[in-house]
Amino acid sequence: MDFNDEIINIIEQFEYDIYVVNRDAHYKCVCVDYNNGDAIPSCDKCLGTGYKIKIKKIKGVGQWTGIPNAAPSAGRFSDDTSKGRRYYTRAKYNIKEEDIIVDNLEPFIIMSEKMFKSFSGEDVYRLALGYELKNDSHAFIANFRKIVGV
Ligand SMILES: [Zn+2]
User: 25, 27, 92, 131: which has the fewest C-beta neighbours closer than 10 Å?
Assistant: First the structure.
């Protein structure tokens, strides 16, 4: 059994339901200010992301982790007290940078993600690193609950 198989075993054993909010970077939301490019945090169409979104229920294994200091874009969404969370998911789920994972009604903005491949080059699993979404997370979660019905 190689290392990838062990990770897949862990994912299969411990994965639980989470949501991923995928942003479609091709379509800006109507709430985006054309002068400064900012979205309205309380927007219930884009959840404050500024883009068209799709919300999917997926499965993953989450684990608390530290936040690396060199996190250039984290300040837009988070602050010094934000916690980090690592997610291991099966390869079939689509998670990109700046998508948002909602885990037990807590939002985490994805700052990096990496697909791990087998020796023969097939996608096996993905590791995504998220930071606790601090700024305007209340408006985000309220709108999220309205859309998803949870
Ligand atoms: Zn919007």
Answer: 92
